[in-house]
Amino acid sequence: MTLWSAADAAEATGGRATTGWAATGVSIDTRTIRPGDLFVALAAARDGHDFVAQALDKGAAAALVSRIPEGVDPGAPLLIVDEVLPALERLGMAGRARTKAKVAAITGSVGKTSTKEMLRAALEGQGKVHAAEASYNNHWGVPLTLARMPADTDFAVIEIGMNHPGEIAPLARMARPHVAMVTTVAAVHLEAFENVEGIAREKAAIFEGLEPGGCAVVNGDLPTSPILRAAARAAGARIVGFGAGVSNHHRLREAHLRDGATVGRARLWRTEVALKVATEGRHFMLNALGVIAVAQAMGADRARAICNLSAWAPPAGRGTRETIVLDPAREGETLELIDDAFNANPTSLSASLAVLAASTPRDGVGRVHRGRRIAILGDMLELGPQEHEMHAAMADDPAIAAIRTVHCVGPRMRALHAALPAERRGRWVGRAEELLPDLARLVDSGDVVLVKGSKGSQVSRLVDAIRKLGQRNPSGDKEA
Questions:
Q1: Which DSSP string corresponds to 418-434?
Q2: In terms of DSSP bridges, do strands 261-268 and 271-277 run parallel, antiparallel, or are they unpaired?
Q3: Binding site as annotated, residues
Q4: How many domains is the chain built from?
Q5: How many other CB atoms are there within 10 angstroms of residue 163's CB atom?
Q6: In this predicted model, what pLDDT tens digit does every residue of 316-355 receive, in sequence order?
Q7: What contacts 268, CB < 8 A, 6 or more positions away?
Q8: Where is the Mur ligase N-terminal catalytic domain (predicted)?
Q9: Is 168 in the same domain as 230?
Q10: For residue 289, what are the domain limits?
C-alpha cells in the first residue's frame, strides 16, 4: 500500500519530485532499508547523501535530498528540498494531519520505551496501531515516526525524549497528542539542567502539544508531581494520576514478584482489578496503571487492555529475563540473565536491584553449588557534577544486602565499588571489555545475573558474552 506518492510528498515538504514514484515506507538507514522505502538523506555521523546511490540500488522508491548526490543520475527518483531535516519534519506533520488516529505521546526520565511498547501491546487487537520503533524519540525520531504513519491508523503511540531544555515542546506540538503521559521524573541529564525540578518542567512541556480537551496522565507519587499537574492544568488538560499514593485515580494496592511475572491488585477509579505483566518489577506494574489510563482515554476498551498487558514483557535490554543454558548435556546447568543494559540512572538502577534481590537462585548446581545474586553494573551517564556521589550512594540501596556480589564497570562506578561493603565488593574494571576474559569464572549455574548500565558504558557486550556461554532460551518459553 502506498504511504507517500511523489505528488503528496512534494506538497507536504515543499520540494520537487524529479519523477513520479510511490513509497511504501520511510527509511534513514541503508542497512535496514526495504524495497519501496523513501530514503531520507539525513546528515548525522555521515552525510546521508553519500548513501543515496546505495539506497536506490537496494530498491528505494526515491530519496529525499537537498542536492543531487555525486554519481546519481539527475533523472533518478528524487525529492529535492532546501534542507532535509526540516523537510522530514514537514512530512511528519503532514502524516499527522491526514490521519484520524487517536494519538498518545509518552515521555519520562525512566521507562519511556518500555511503556511505549506496553501501550502498543494494550491496544493490540483494538484497531490499527502505529508506534515508534526502538527509541526513536528525538528531533528526527519523532518526525520519522509520524511520516511512517499510515493514513488509516486508529491508534498512534509516539515516544518523546530530550537531552537539553526546550526539546520536548516542539516535538509534542508536532505529534499533537490526544493523551500525554509522563512516566516519572528522575536525576537524568543533570549535565544540562540545574536540578530535578528543571527536568520536571521540561517533561511537563509535553502537555503543550495536547489537542483541545486532551488528557494528561501523570505519575502522582513524585516530589515533582505538583509541577506536572500545574503544567497540565495550564494546558487545559483533564488529569489522571497513577501510582501507589491514595490521591491517584489509578492506584496500585499490592504487587508481588513471581517467577517471570508481576501480579497484583489495583483500584482504577472505583473499580478493583487484578493485574499481571509477564516480567518482574514493581515499576512495570506502576507504569501499567498509567498505560491503562492512556488506553482508556484514547477510546480503547479497558478490559481488553488489561488482558493484553498480562502477556507483555519488556523489549531487549530493558529488563528482559532469559535462561542461559551453560551445559546442554547436564540438566539444570543454567543461569538466569536479567538484561537491562540499555539505560541507567539511580531510579532505574534501584528498581532493577529490587528485581534482582527478589529473585531466587538455585543451589546444588554448578561449580559453586550455591546459587548467587550477582550484579554487573556499568556507569550511569549524564548525571552532572554530583555523579560520583550519586554512584556511591547506591551502596545504601536496600536491595544491596540481598546481592552476593557486585562487579563494577567504568570510571564513575569506581565510586560505588569503593562504597560497597567488603563482602559484596566484586571486580572493578575501567571498560567492559576488560571483564570479558574472566566472565565465565564470575558467573555460574544457579546464579541470577543482572547486567545494568547506560548504553555508553557498553555493558551490553557482557550480556552478549554471557549469552554465548551457552545457548539462549528466553524465559517466555517456559510456563508462567
A1: HHS-GGGEEEEESSGGG
A2: antiparallel
A3: 108-114
A4: 3
A5: 14
A6: 778 888 999 888 777 778 999 999 998 899 999 999 999 9
A7: 249, 250, 289, 292, 293, 302
A8: 24-67
A9: yes
A10: 99-309
